[in-house]
Amino acid sequence: MTQPTLLRGERLRTALALAASGVPVLPLRAGKVPFGNCRHCTGNACGGRPNMKTPGPCTCPAPCHGWAAATTDPNIVSSGTWHRAWVSASAVAYHPGGAGLTVVDLDDADAITWARTTLPATRTVSTTRGEHWIYLGAMQSANAVRPGVDIKSTMAYARWLGPGTGTITALPDAVRALTAKTPSPARTAPQAVTVPAPVGDGPCPHRTPTYLARGLAMAEQRITQATTTGVHATVYRTFLAVLAKHGRCGCLTDTHITRLFTAAQTKGETPRHCTDAWANARTALGL
Length: 287
Fold this sequence. Notes:
Layout: H1 8-20, E1 25-29, E2 33-34, H2 74-77, H3 80-88, E3 91-94, E4 101-106, H4 109-118, E5 123-126, E6 131-136, E7 142-146, E8 149-152, E9 158-159, E10 169-170, H5 173-176, H6 209-224, H7 231-246, H8 254-266, H9 271-285
Parallel strand pairs: 6-10
Antiparallel strand pairs: 1-2, 1-3, 3-9, 4-6, 4-8, 5-6, 7-8
Helix pairs in contact: 1-3, 6-7, 6-8, 7-9
């Protein structure tokens, strides 16, 4: 059953059935776009991107932040807020990466021909323009990895267009290789940015310096591994997480902050973006 034939009640029933099977779902409005930001996040105050496809780290009850709104909780899917969304939704979507899946989105006949001659057979689902090839295994998402081909897995959503045909197979290296980047030219050395460290007066919960050192290393790694399209949101979420853990007791120093800013600038963030993300994170936490 394709999406255009689903009635309002059927969309909700489909969503509940998918959630029960462990597939995170969310409603889409016309144009395959997630529902708009809720009033608590007006102007993307949560750090989300303007197109609403990249979420910020908020806890809104409404399905308003793209793939991150997807859930398997039936109580949320059928809640009053979500029920109203299903009434006006035009499609059911799901988060492939959240279900441990990868969708190779083939947009035209040439892309389908390429897949049939290059990729191992797997479950396929017909779309309005081409096919979705679904593999077992998650990976980073990317658009336009080759003409007419997108990868939808982690931090992305795809329309649910039915169970498809064929036996699902393991995600092959040939698909993972599609997102491999060629080394980019050397970037300009990160600029020095002076940002006052948050001054906290609360009790310090950290027993050893190792706790903070490990947290900073993990934060740097998270920024370093961010995708090009998702670096803004990743930097903000990372800054928010670090401040939530270490911003109230005064553990953070200028040296720690410089490490985070340097990692962000190495990924292409400007000093201004770093400063804004840090300030927004402090504001969100009331620091």
